[in-house]
Amino acid sequence: MLISSRVKNLHPYVPGEQPKDRDYIKLNANENPYPPSPEVSKALSSFIESSSEKLGLYPDPDSLELHAAIADMLNKTGGVLSRCSVSSDGSVCPAEEDKIPFTVTPDMIYSGNGSDEVLSFVFYAFFDSGKSFVMPEFTYSFYPVYAGFYNIPMDTVPLKEDWSLDVKEMLARSKKNKGGIIFANPNAPTGLSLTREEVRQMLLEADKDEIFIVDEAYVDFGGQSCIPLLSEFKNLVIVRTFSKSLCGAGQRLGYIVSSPELVNIVTTVKNSVNHFPIDVLAQVSGTAACRNPAYYVDCAKKVCSVRDDFYNFLLTKGFYAVESDTNFIFARHPKIGGADLYQAVKNDGILIRHFNTPGIEDFVRITVGTQKQMELLKESFNKITGGLK
Ligand SMILES: *Cc1c(COP(=O)(O)O)cnc(C)c1O
After folding, report:
1. What's the rounded Cα separation, in Å, for the pair 263 and 106?
2. Distance between Cα 243 and ligand 1 center (Å)
3. Among the four residues 85, 258, 261, 384, which has the most C-beta atoms within 10 Å?
4. pLDDT tens per residue across span 217-252
């Protein structure tokens, strides 16, 4: 046999489309519509000009400078950019509710080639093939892909009527299975979040020796980070990414924040698969991004204000929309199906996301772009809903 039996059982993740046939406005992959900070471009240019010989050498396998910069950014921002204030000298300050009551140290950070890769190693490190882990029925659709890849059984818990997590049922099942928990907070594709206190209550009730993973890909747009809970819970792993709030989907950087012990476990997995997951350019650009949080605070605030404006627009057009703590909105119209809406908008040169998944097929997920992009989407929606009977 040419192909391993393992490969036949793979069900790869299908990302938001990236078509080349036309210049679409891309509101389908939750990318940030703003470019990285000018400091990132400067750092990259200066690296190419003065240190390009380093491209011929292996990068730092442990990304120590990057980890120090990530830890420093989290301490400065509290891990939620949209609520930070920025002084005239460019220094940032977290909102009172976001302040982390201890110092995040670099040994609490593990980073990898996008949080997708980080999640893959986290699954390998903490979930086991003999016990089902618990996750919500609708959440980041890469989790079931990893479960299949590593042959880990999963136990999916339906969302409640209002699309929020069924916390009670998730806890009950995880106590029975003893295989750990993962969910995104805020969740995708719904955009809803649990407060830090709600997650804390879950952690208090959950088994202390089962892993508890919170994916905070979207938390910078207004959720509450669970980083402050790390001093209380040794089984907590927080996953974060540069792809959404740090305008960096192309550089492929994600990380976890957890105890140094759990960080070491994931590092062991990494060193058994790929010693150098982060190339030297991503280390340079990621470090520069973390050193300029004020720029990204500004971007996150803009995204939130455009999002709230667009949410109100959807309501006036008769949509049902879930109130979002993220950079996307999950919505449906009573008179047009998700697939048809997606296609109609695509004909106008705009891509939004439709999931062909039973239970959410009436919905579309709309990434929040710039105000200008959203005005064009409004025009398209006006046209489409105006023609509905
Ligand atoms: C986008 C996203 C990721 C993946 O981020 P990358 O760092 O680009 O791999 C992980 N989790 C959730 C919930 C996401 O939405």
Report:
1. 10
2. 7
3. 258
4. 999 999 999 999 999 999 999 999 999 999 999 999
CA of 219 to the centre of ligand 1 (A): 12
Q: What is the DSSP string of 155-204?
A: EEEPPPTTS---HHHHHHHHHHH-S-EEEESS-TTT-----HHHHHHHHH
Ligand 1 atom closest to the Cα of residue 187 is 13
Q: Tens of pLDDT along 302-346?
A: 999 999 999 999 999 999 999 999 999 999 999 999 999 999 999
Closest of 141, 136, 200, 140 to residue 174, by C-alpha: 136
Nearest CA-CA partner of 16 in 24, 6, 4, 5: 24
- 334: which 2 tokens? 């009573």
Distance 130 CA to ligand 1 centre (A): 27
> How far is 123 from 4, CA to CA, in rounded Å?
22
Task: Name the band, by pLDDT with cuts 50, 70 and 90, for residue 11.
Answer: confident
Tell me the two tokens of residue 177: 């299975």
Cβ–ligand 1 contact at 122 (below 6 Å): no
- Measured from the Cα of 30, ligand 1's closest atom is 1
3-state helix, strand, coil in the chain (%, to 5): 45, 15, 45
**What proportion of the chain, given as a percentage, has pLDDT over 90?**
93
Query: Measured in whole angstroms, how far is the alpha carbon of residue 319 from the centre of its chain?
Result: 25
To the question of pTM greater than 0.90 for the whole model, the response is yes
SS3 256: strand
Ligand 1 in reach of 184 Cβ (< 6 A): yes
CA 181 to chain CA mean position, Å: 17
Cβ(280) to ligand 1 under 6 A? no
254 lines ligand 1 (CB under 6 A): yes
Distance of alpha carbon 39 from alpha carbon 79, whole angstroms: 20
